[in-house]
Amino acid sequence: MDALSILTVFGISFISVLFLGPKFIRKLKAQGHVVTDQYKREKPKIPTMGGLLMLSGVLASLIVAQFLVPSVSTLLIFYLVGINFAIFGLLDDLLVMSRFWKMVLPFFLAFPIALLNYDTTLWFGFTQLQLGVLYMFIVAPLYVMVVANLVNMHSGFNGLASGLTLILMCFVEIKVFMETGMLNMIYIMPMLGALAAFFYFEKYPSRMFLGNCGSLLIGAVLGGLLVLNNLELFGLIIMIPHIVNFLLYVVWKFKHVGEIKFGEVRYDGSLKVPNNLTLKWFFPYYYRLTEQQATLVMFLITAAFGVLGLVLV
């Protein structure tokens, strides 16, 4: 795979999202697809379902990729997983699906990843385990589903989920380049370009939110990238902050400390959060941090674990 084709595929999705972003913002507002930005004192209404914007960029990139990428069929199969999760997230945004379907359907939506798993070895760092069909149809889809849900859960501040996933994807791309050179870099480019451009719209102060369709899209593609490149252990390390966030949430539910989903903004702009049982609330619970500062702390922590993953794996 040559560098020009890789940059072109990235550039198409990046430019498409930047160009279409203002149009999507106007359309979503006009159609009433807005939610309250809870961490602003004036409580503005912000367009949501920005995942549709990213999906548009990805699709534009894939159309161009058909003329540039020799093995484009595998690329299209790979992004079928992300598209499946985006559609599922959109249905959840519009219909608010039950917890049962949220737990069951994503596993089956990740099945196309099995078509690309020619290496069914699970590497633990010190040993390898050959799982065969078990890996293809159980471990790989489950891994994608878990990563997508971890990304979906670690959100709530302006630019948090998109920024964290952008950081993670960059570290995955660095690792892929270290392992295979430019051979597999093409797989991340449609999503990386779309996500990098979308972050411009979602960073503080947000003009558009991801919605479930967006967070599940980027989470599924991230999980698929790790599975496709046999980087499950690397993914485990770099996603430790996301895992800790999930474990804190489990403690929250176990202790039954209330169903408050959002904090408040003090007169000085700092956050007042109800507990320390999500990672994004942990530091604002003990220190007076603004939304921007709390988000930056999350970025730095995730970047630190990205470096740790490169060092250890």
What's the short story on this structure?
With 313 residues, the protein is mainly alpha-helical. The chain contains twelve helices and six strands.
Q: Could you characterize the architecture of this molecule?
A:
The structure is a single chain. With about 325 residues, this protein is mainly alpha-helical. The chain has a domain at about 5-120 and about 135-230. Helices cover about 65% and strands about 5% of the residues. It contains 12 helices and 6 strands. Strands 1-2 form a two-stranded antiparallel ribbon. A two-stranded antiparallel sheet has the order 3-4. Strand 1 and strand 2 (about 45) form a beta hairpin. Helix 2 runs antiparallel to helix 3, helix 3 runs antiparallel to helix 4 (about 100-110) and helix 9 runs antiparallel to helix 12. The longest helix has 28 residues, at about 5-30. It is globular. The two termini are about 25 Å apart.
